[in-house]
From TrEMBL:
InterPro entries: LOB. Residues 76-103 form a coiled coil. Belongs to the LOB domain-containing protein family. PROSITE patterns: LOB. The keyword Coiled coil applies. It comes from the Eukaryota. Pfam families: LOB (PF03195). It is found in: Nucleus. PANTHER family: LOB DOMAIN-CONTAINING PROTEIN 4-RELATED, PROTEIN ASYMMETRIC LEAVES 2. Its main location: nucleus. Residues 1-97 form the LOB domain. Keywords: Coiled coil, Developmental protein, Nucleus. This is LOB domain-containing protein 36.
Length: 110
């Protein structure tokens, strides 16, 4: 496994989860994680959860390569900020809608 640092070979334990036509996935993993450890962890995971594990560590590796300081935490931080902005915007829209509804009700009474 350690001799295979740049691409996943047919003997690699990741082959069922990383297509051979996507060598960049394996390359990302091997740049960020020690592949022998990732392979040991993969073997300890239930077979029906292995694809999720590989997808997750691929996402983490790619995030770390894009942003070496923050990695996934940066993505989570950005999404939380975006969510807060959208919540505030939704609150404003709901308040505006309530105001419109009140004015419609008032007009209907006269």
């Amino acid at each position: 496994m350690e001799s295979c640092e740049c691409k996943c070979t047919k003997e690699c334990v990741f082959v069922p989860y990383l297509p051979l036509n996507k060598p960049e996935k394996y390359a990302s993993l091997s740049k960020v994680f020690k592949m022998s450890k990732m392979a040991r962890l993969l073997k300890d995971i239930e077979p029906n959860q292995r694809q999720v594990y590989v997808d997750s560590i691929c996402f983490e590796a790619e995030a770390r390569l894009r942003d070496p300081v923050w990695g996934c935490v940066g993505i989570i931080r950005d999404l939380k900020l975006q969510l807060e902005i959208l919540k505030r915007e939704l609150k404003k829209k709901r308040m505006a809608l309530e105001e419109i509804q009140r004015s419609i009700i008032l007009r209907a009474r006269f």
